[in-house]
Every structure is written in C-alpha cells, then in structure tokens.
Amino acid sequence: MSGDLPDYYFRVRENGAVVFRVDTENRQRRIDLEEIATVNVNNGKIKPHGDGDLTAAEEALIADWVEDRRAVLAARDIDDILRAVDHLNLTTQWAQSRATDEALEQVTDTLLMAMHDLRAVLVRKKADRILKAEAADE
Fold it and tell me: How far is 45 from 63, CA to CA, in rounded Å?
C-alpha cells in the first residue's frame, strides 16, 4: 500500500495549503502525516513548520505545487465566469417566459444594478486594453 501513496500531502486551505510529509515506514505500519510547512498561494511564501528546515527538493516541490495550484484556481475563475454567463442567459429566458410580475418586482432592481456595475467595469477595462494596444502599435 505504501507504494501507492505520495511522499507529500497538501491540505488545501483558504489561501494556500498545509504541507505534510507522508510517513508509512513506522513500527505501527500506519500512515503518519508530519506537518512540514504552510504555503500561501497568493504571495508564494513558504513557512517551515516549527524549527524544522525544508530541503531544497521540498522547497522546489512546494513551489511547483503553488504554480500548479495557481493554474487550477485561474481555470476555475474562468469557468465560474462562463457559468455566470449561462446563468444570465437562463435568467433572461426565465424573465421573458416564466417570471411572474411579483418575481420580477423582487429581482429587477438588484439585477439591473449588478448588470450596470458589471457593464461599466467591462467597458472601462476594454477601453483600457484598446488604448494600451494602440500605444504598443505606435
């Protein structure tokens, strides 16, 4: 069984992970997790646990995990946005075909404010990108 287990385990938490060394070579033949570090995905900081020091290999392994985790989180962000687009389309269909006057009254102002805010941000960001591209072309 120990051949199937990784040497390190990352317990994901809000802004990163707690890193454990997996130990299966002990007298009780049970799986022990030895905490060796905490890592912050946002700033990339790695803090060894207690007075322990990390090996260069462990630091490299953790840095690779941070890079992979950032990629996963970025992909999830895009997927969440694309799901929001789907929900907007479903909301439009609902408002057009099934919504009661009472239901529309309940959600209209909130939806309009959120869509106005989103539109303003998207238009401003698009204009910034266009101006930046034009400046780069010059």
Answer: 9
19 torsion bin: left (phi>0), alpha (psi -120 to 50), beta (else): beta
Cβ-Cβ contacts under 8 Å for 63 (sequence gap 6 or more): 44, 46
Sheet holding 46-48, edge to edge: 8-13, 16-23, 32-40, 46-48
Domain range annotation of the chain:
2-77
Give residue-wise pLDDT tens across range 20-76.
999 887 777 788 999 999 999 999 999 999 988 999 999 999 999 999 999 999 999
* 3-state SS class at 103: helix
Please give the Cα distance from 16 to 57 (Å, whole number): 19
5 in Cβ contact with 31 (< 8 Å): yes
- For residue 121, give both structure tokens: 């941000």
